[in-house]
Amino acid sequence: MSETMTAIEITKPGGPEVLQPTTRPVPVPAHGQVVIKVAYAGVNRPDALQRAGMYAPPPTASDLPGLEASGEVVALGEGVSDIALGDQVCALLPGGGYAEYVATPAAHCLPVPDGMGLKEAACLPETFFTVWSNVFMRGGLTAGERFLVHGGSSGIGTTAIQLAHAFGARVFVTAGTDKKCAACMELGAEAAINYRDMDFVDVLEAEGGADLILDMVGGEYIPRNLKALAPDGRLVQIAFLQGPKVEVNFAMLMTKRLTMTGSTLRPQSDLAKARIAQELREAVWPLLSAGRVAPVMDSSYPLAEAAAAHARMEGSGHIGKIVLEVAP
Ligand SMILES: NC(=O)c1ccc[n+]([C@@H]2O[C@H](COP(=O)([O-])OP(=O)(O)OC[C@H]3O[C@@H](n4cnc5c(N)ncnc54)[C@H](OP(=O)(O)O)[C@@H]3O)[C@@H](O)[C@H]2O)c1
After folding, report:
1. How does pLDDT run across 29-55, given as a tens digit for each residue?
2. Hey, which of 43, 118, 126, 227 has its CA 20 to 30 A from 216?
3. Is 175 strand, coil or helix?
4. Which CATH superfamily hosts domain 4-124+290-325?
């Protein structure tokens, strides 16, 4: 294995053009880590936030972007016993996925599901860890409940629709075009609300309210989410695409006995992420191997064209996941 590798770095905070090829040392695995020879790397909205200087990596993480990848395990750190050299895995990363090699805790690796290619597998970890931990572990979604996810056609949204549907919830989504709404319906949504034409509050109120809302929009959606929730409903906030500050009348929190919560995945401890990985392995990986749930693929770009991949994502024309080809 060579000592250096090609990677994409963020040369300075800015637009997609600040993503530039560079040469870096191949990472060495720390205790409990593996090094993966990356085949494909998933692209996620948090990568664009990091690139813009709005989402700093944790102090111990690589400064290179990239939160998920698939590929072959080529080096093992001390204390790694349940993964072998040559295993094909997909993995949640602390950062550094836009590169030929990346190090990550072995406990954050999962097998490539049966029958799935490395390209699709690269697109699993970030959204599946996020959706599982927020919708099921934190939000407690159960069969028969009414579940609303905003940004239904996003990487997160397409995952949330499929998992909620697979576990028996009634799924409602919002999205910004009729084409995106149609894609959400095909994935298992019972109703897809084009927010440019319809008010999601009206639709949910007519159904008795949402038991759980997964929101990435924030801003003026926050008071409307509280209105759209059923008594004892829960709101889980995972991002604020329209901003985190808004004036809200919290009286409904009392009268409807609502719960508001939220989380970000990246700063959580290795142990917390390992617990999510374990639950995914048991509850969700069998669904992926059976083909009942699959990542929705939008487009792929060579690693050197990471800037174009970010421009595609930030143009919001995509449906599902965007992936970088590193060594396909
Ligand atoms: N908390 C966590 O741990 C965590 C982890 C991963 C991702 N996230 C967040 O989850 C969100 C989705 O991530 P992703 O990678 O799936 O992103 P994505 O595929 O780029 O999707 C974002 C979607 O949000 C909608 N959108 C964009 N700008 C908007 C705006 N200003 N107002 C309303 N809607 C807007 C767009 O759909 P429409 O055309 O339908 O508007 C777009 O498809 C991101 O905000 C990301 O930062 C959080």
Report:
1. 999 999 999 999 999 999 999 999 999
2. 118
3. strand
4. Medium-chain alcohol dehydrogenases, catalytic domain (3.90.180.10)
